[in-house]
Amino acid sequence: MTDDALWYEAALLVGITNAINVVADSPLQSLAPAETGPEAEQVFAEIRAFYDRAVPAVFRRLGGDPGYLADVWAATHRAFSDNRLTRRFKEALAFAVSVTTRSPFGTTFHLEEMKRLGVGERGVMEVLGVTQMFSSYTKIADTLQLESDMHDIAPVDWSPAPGGAARHRPAKA
Question: Is residue 31's pLDDT more than 70?
Answer without folding.
Answer: no
